[in-house]
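Researcher: Here's a chain I'd like modeled. Treat it as a single chain, no partners, no ligands.
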Amino acid sequence: MNKGTAIHYDPRLVEEAVFHAPCDSYVRQELEERRKRIYEVPDPDERESQFLVLYHTWFHRLGLGNGVEAALREQRLIPAQVGKCFIACAIAAKEESAELFIAQNTRMENPPERTLRILLRPESLLNTVALTALLRHELFHIADMLDPAFAYEPTLPKAEGGPTYDTLITSRYRALWDTTINGRMLRRGWCDASVRDLQFADFVHAFPMLQNRIGEVFSRFFECEQPRHSDLARFAFDPRQATGSVQRHDAPGTHCPLCNFPTHVFEAEPNGLGADVLAAIKEDFPIWSASLGLCAQCADLYRARQMSMAAAKLLPGWTPSSKTP
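Model: Modeled as a single isolated chain. Structure tokens:
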């Protein structure tokens, strides 16, 4: 790390890692003897202070931070731009991640203060191979965020479809970004070749609407050496327009023009819904046409509405003013 970067380890993480670290019986015996001597210290504050020093010393003696520091050095933008790095304790594997915090300096002429937080489980520090794979992927995200060429923005624009569609866009963006990262990692020899197939499966799930072009589009992102946030965001919002060739409005994974929810099941034959159903849809959505399609749920709702109307007409005393909603 550069001279201005300080790495701070969570004392709980340090203690747990040291306690579970594999070492020979002589080393373990030496550690236990020192622990016993500290337990004899009468003052609790002094005892706690000595334990902190003991675990910190043995943490570095056993090289338990080497994997973290090596991964940080691989991404030159991080040690060059990040002032502090905190390695905190994660409870579960799904919590393990890296996050960048940026605080504007009170004096505007000074650069913003950047702090990196990495969440790890103690046992992850003991598995060098898995730890390196995890950190390389997570820190590639951080390096992109620091790269002026990537031009990262912390939030995506809000989608017209509301929160549900916002979630869909975020998932697509994440799949795109991960695709570019895993491609760059593979070309650097930082991961196994099987990562391409795994990432492709994730890409297919995120972009089913690409259909027969999905392999070509995936390769374009996977082989991209200098991705840009704006390109990823634009593609996530409208993959069909971004590719310039996918014209179908009812492709799986796109959103229904009526309810605006993403769906994988569109009505197979909108023109076959019948004149009454089509007229009811046009009454609610004047600019809609059958060529735009609609999801199966909306089609079923309009069918059911017309069936209710037909049944209501058979009731005694029915008049046009007593229409069902």
